Amino acid sequence: MSDGGVGSTLTNGIQDISALLPLIGTEQCEKHIGSALERGYIYAAATPMSIFGALGLARAGLKTAIAGIHVSFGNSFTFCGATKLADMGFSASGSTLPLIMSVEGEHGEKKYNHLAEARLDKLLKDLHID
To answer: I need a labelling partner for 126 at 20 to 30 A (CA). Which of 46, 52, 82, 118 fits?
Structure first.
């Protein structure tokens, strides 16, 4: 077996790293989409310019769409998308997307459907508003 030298080693190393870049890029782009309301339009507008951004946009959009579904058929069946996503291990990244995700209450006492609901309940308790 002959040694390929520096060029062969460099090429093999780049191929190994290039397999991991889509995963890292997709997560970062999903975080940018989740922060678009707080940090500005350019976060959401520039993200789909790359293939990683398009995948991140699709993931964030799918999570948002599923988390926004709340269907209730009487007392027998209730489907809360945010709770289902949390039960499956999905978490929202960014600063605004987690507001619609499911969250446990303090000391596990009440499970809230959305983080915004938990924050509102805490605010009402802190201000002693009944």
So the answer is: 82
